[in-house]
Amino acid sequence: MKKQIQLSEELKLPLTLHIVKSFNEIVVLKNQIKPKQKWIIHGFNNYKQTEVLLKNDFYLSFGSGLLSNQKLQNAFKKMPNHKILLETDDSDVKIEKLYTFAADLKSIVLKDLTQLIRINIKMITNGKLA
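The structure assignment produced for this chain is given below.
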């Protein structure tokens, strides 16, 4: 893990993390290291951790779990738009379906959601991607 963090810092690119149960440990590690690059929780579906992760400047990337998990949907609705990412690499769900669903949850137009995620990606990657 520390090698990945070091590489992220050297290349000035975000660190994407797939975390299942060690959220507390990852928050402690991030606070100890104080990285300059952004950290993203990939496949985020642990709604109970939303608040602590946001307070510690993580970005949350939601996958297909958003479509069926009511508590995750409620957490997503309350999230600041500048911390949201979407993904479907963990399922057969089409990304268009996830974007449409997420836009409805946020009560915004699909085009606006697409634009805000594009902006988020630029912020996360220091303008290197998007």
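Interim note for the steering committee: The longest strand covers residues 39-44. The CA atoms of residues 6 and 111 lie 36 Å apart.
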